[in-house]
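Supplementary notes for students who missed Thursday's class. We covered one full example, reproduced here. Read the sequence, then the structure, then the short commentary at the end.
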Amino acid sequence: MEVPRRPQWLSVGLPSSFTKDVPHLREKTGRVGQIARSLAIFRVDEALIYDDEPGKSSDTEGKLMDKLLAYQETPQYLRRAIFKQDPDLQFTGILPPLRMPSHPNLGEPRIGEIREGLVIASGPKSIVNAGFTTPVEIAAKLNPQQRVTIRLVRTSPSLRGELVEPTRLPIYWGFRVTRTKLTLGKLIGSRRQDLTISTSRRGKLVGDVLDDLTLRWKSAQRPLVLFGSPSEGVPEILAKERADLTTKVDFNLNMIPNQAVETVRTEEAVLASLSILNLLGEK
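Structure (token representation):
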């Protein structure tokens, strides 16, 4: 299955304390797995993990979230080589598969096929593990253990490939994970986004600004969508920095009008919000 990539670069901001209220690693793993599924379903390009609660505990949770998202984004045939044995990954067997174009079913190699690979030997030519029964030769000197994206150009008598830039592929190829120690306000100020959307129960109803939102969404090149933590919304997180919400975001939206539960979990807000934005269409 090949799905066209977005004409935009879509980033989603997530708090480092996302799993802080969950006591067991198994539950933390499952919760992050739900986020990864939503990112892949709606063709998100980048997951940004920001520091919403500066401190050791939040830093530990942020590292775990980064690791779990990166693990799930990695094709199955490369995970053992890249991540080795790690106690933080002991429950990854419960993670739902993403089945993105970059996570193919293993089969016979085909000319033109694109794969993620890992450099296993380097010299004048490099040898890459791309999930086939035999490695792929690349006519370039690459760094050992470097992760690369390749396209097969020959299948016989041996496999040969060429490097490709994943961000230039016409199809959706998955999301990257960026973890920063910046607070939310500083993160917003450090980015080059041309549309910033925050989600909040106290925001404007999305239906009330739908026409304006649609126009801005379709013209945006680098939209950023922000989500709060289990204990605080985006406005409250910014308020701790004494940052003015109205100067930081273009829209503060209630994406789930008339919610019939007291609180909406972050993973639920991500799914609901990206569903609505996906319906706005593309330029």
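Commentary. The mean pLDDT is 93. The longest strand covers residues 195-205. If anything here is unclear, bring it to office hours.
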